[in-house]
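Interim report, section 4.2 (structural modelling).
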Amino acid sequence: MARFLLRRLLNMIPLIIGITFISFVAMSLVPGNFLSALKMNPRISPQVIRQMEAQFGLDQPFTVRYFRWLWGVLHLNLGISMQYRVSVTSLIAVRAFNTIILAVASMIFSWVLAIPIGIVVAVRQNSIWDRVLSFLAFLGMSVPNFFLAFLMIYFAMHLGKDWLPPGGTFSVDYSSLTFWNRGADRINHLILPVFVLGVSGMAGLMRLMRSQILEIKNSEFVRTARAKGLSERIVLYKHVLRNALNPFVTMAGYSLGDLLGGAALVEAVMNLQGLGLLLLNAVRSLDIYLVMGSVLIGTVLLLVGNLLADMALVAVDPRVDFSSVAAE
Amino acid sequence: MNVPALVNPELQVAAVPAAAQRSLAREWRLASRTVRVSAGCLTLFYMFAAVSPFFASYDPIYQNRRMPDCPPMQLHLSAPSYWSHGLLWTDPLTMSDAEARTYVADTSHRIYIHFFSGGHLFTTDSETEPFYLLGSDSLGRDLYSRIVYGARVSMCVGLVGVLITFSLGIVVGSLSGYVGGLTDNLIMRWSEIEMSLPSFYFLLALAAIIPPGIGAAERFLMIVAIMSFIGWAGLARVIRGMASSVRSNPYVEAARALGGSRWRIITQHVIPSVIGYAIVAATLSIPGFILGESALSLLGLGIQEPTPSWGNLLSEAMDPQNLARYPWILIPGIFIFLTVMSFNFLGDHLRDRFDPSNAR
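Predicted structure of the assembly:
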């Protein structure tokens, strides 16, 4: 396992360099920079502008800037945000925490609902429940995240702000609340985003669960298990389900990218202070180091998530071991 | 084995049109009701895009300053004796409170809706007393007309994007799978980088490259190009897997033994055998392009005002107050939803049809 981990971690290095390099090229291709707007302002003297250019390294050629940034990353220093004037690391730490909570909560939400529903629907194939729920799953898969978020905001606005907040990370009076009330306030603000993000994930997982069980139900070893005289319950839980969960775990890893992207959109629409919203604002104001930091952290989150999913696969499926996962 | 057809391709070509026609009718018979409805929806939306001036009632960028945020107007059926005036009518709305943007119906006279007049599907006599089927936006532009024109962007982004990823994915994938070796290794490492990107984050970062001053068409192309750049790798990888399994098939070996060139084998044998899968994958990847463009435009990084796209039409809803007071600004979202769902249904159906395990 140690070898597997080492190998995967080493594989990440060229990947991260490639991704950050492309993003850096993209950001330096952008016409103008953060200071363009300041230069138009007659009240800011050219000396100040030059000083800021030197401070952010904007007067240096592209390659120098990139390697300086990369050198900083190696020392856990992601540079300084131009618009907030604080270190990118401190900005991202708070925002990434919010995004991880949102992503993990909606993942739990979708799994907890999708697995039992998928089982019920597959066991009662072609029943009215199967048809209704499968159709709803299709709706859930097709509804755009941002549209569902708008619908939920509309719903919350009509329900009244005392019930569900239509957006934001916490209430205005957050700082005056006690510890427990702060937690409750946060959770209250997370309900709608988690629901929005969970619904689309849930629909896909439910369909996968259903098709997996239907496929495995007709396989040889299930027939053997039945022939041995095992009860239907044991056949389902010990034989069918154990095998049906395998692609589930694989898909969980691959769906992380969608989850991060979906989270970014939901954050933007519902004004939740997460990594995605931070990146969006940074892109809008051409705050290069903040963009680079957000893309980097987003990529690392995704890679680590994929790694965890692969390790979970080894834990769940006895046929898979670390050497076979690493070979892929 | 069908040797003559292989040697003499003209034989096949002559037979195609009639066979294609027959198979299209057959496909329609085999399709379920949901698939037919989906196909109908998509046809309608593509017609919106193709002949927008006909379907739209008014100029999509004309701003009626007297009627901003006007709610959708109610349609009434005329009594038979009034059918010479028009089959349908509505009460004109006048703004009663400019601050709150509330409207009252003026029951003193009726606006009759005319079909096929002035080159529009339906419209009214004067622009001063318009008929807003789906309401108007905050600048007093007809939402329905804007949706019709917005279909140009939203429906085409999927097609153009798929065309690019599709050709790129098929050529790169077949090449990589068939040639193998170092080429294969390099292409696959590159595609791995692209696939482990947090794609939406990357899309946001790349969207910043688009210079602010360029025209709508160039902007559209750049957005599609960026999305294709991010999205081709997945398709290429799957096609590569299929191509490398095709490679060891006897008929490919036979073609090689007959002296077929590498290019000829790829275009004549490898690509045709993976095209079925590729069509399914393409259909299922169209929604991704539509959603990507909508999301970018919604956030103000995609198609810019005044050119409408279904995504940027929704950007007024970003303010919860607007959303609560003028809920009809969400209607473009229903169009996005219907399109995505139709493509999903269609893709699912095609997958079942191409899957050899349940061939009919």
